[in-house]
Design brief:
Helices cover 7% and strands 41% of the residues. It is mostly beta strands and 407 residues long. The chain has 2 domains: 5-173 and 347-380, Immunoglobulin-like (Sandwich), CATH 2.60.40.840; 183-342, Immunoglobulin-like, CATH 2.60.40. It is elongated and about 90 Å long. InterPro entries: Arrestin, Arrestin-like_C, Arrestin-like_N, Arrestin_C-like, Arrestin_N, Ig_E-set.
Length: 407
Amino acid sequence: MSPKHVVFKKVSRDKSVAVYMAKRDFVDHSDFVDPVDGVIVIDPVQLKGKKVYVMLSCTFRYGRQDMDVMGVAFRRDLFIVTRQVYPELQDKEKLTHTRIQQKLLHKLGDNAYPFFFEFPDNLPCSVSLQPGPNDVGKKCAVEFEVKAFCGENQDEKIDKQSSVRLTIRKIQFSPENTEVAPFADMTFEFLMSEKPLHVKLTLPKETFYHGEPVKANVEITNSSSRNIKDISLSVEQVTNVVLYSNDKYVKSVAKEETEDSVPSGTTLKKEYTLYPLLAYNKDRRGIALDGRLKHEDTNLASSSIVKQEVLKEVQGMLISYKVVLKMIASGEVSVEVPFKLMNPKSEPAPPSDSCCEAVACLSSFLSVLCSEPDDMVFEDFKRAYLKGVVYGDDDESPNNGTGLRNK
């Protein structure tokens, strides 16, 4: 393990506020979600008596920002919470929830102030539809953002020179894998054929992890008078846009076309391997990703898990996957089996009787246990940008500088 602990920073253009955060990705563990915590450093001289606020928001976008149909903008804030950081409303000790905050406050001095948010239980995870090489403007996405700004009050228009916007990502870990192996078992009958075609498609498990090959077992018993040919398998990603519309996007993210055939009266038993990877789908328009990051930072979107008593419409977009087996008889015959594509759990879930704050403290403590304040390394908080996307003034864009650069 590296003795250095990376802390991401971003500074406003006028240097009045700076935000420091220990991570940019926050995990939904199904039974709890990582809290959003960090520290804001202010310059009292630059503030000129103004207050400092920090905001956590979740926004659903559907198309470009300038799209407006009959007065309806294709953007909705699913969640917004704003808190005053300076002047502080409570003692710093009461607002400090994690060990990393303690270390940052110690290192950054008296003008540093902590902030802490908890996600509500009904929010979706980050997801975006990949733009094509020639697409411009904002795309369909569920985005999370931390924003720090100063003003006389939290409702006045935000001065972009005195504000910081940081795009974070909420991702989901896989729940415990079940022992059930999903399958589809179907029989097809044909005109002028006394006996049927029997097809069985089986997956070894219900949940696969990003980067893991998907193995599919195919068993075809052809008792019909038809000859089966052109057998192919694919992994299809299905994106349902459930807010504003009922649009559905179906994209093949892995495919194997074979010359395998099953003549009349014969049987085929074979295992096929598919590789649903973003590396094979770069620049393909409409592919859903786990947030708006560069290809090296992200992957195909994870399967959506909607918790009980949560409205699907609040999720913005729902992602699912299925393996589809196709073949040609007298016409096309297809069989499909759904499965989940997720991120694996990297650490065990906390004890059930632990409260959220205890979980947050434990998580942050373990991550910096071996680090002293001087062992922290500060890096600019910035993401790489997807090809073909034009970012506006209100976005965290390549031209929206951090104010500090690595030298």
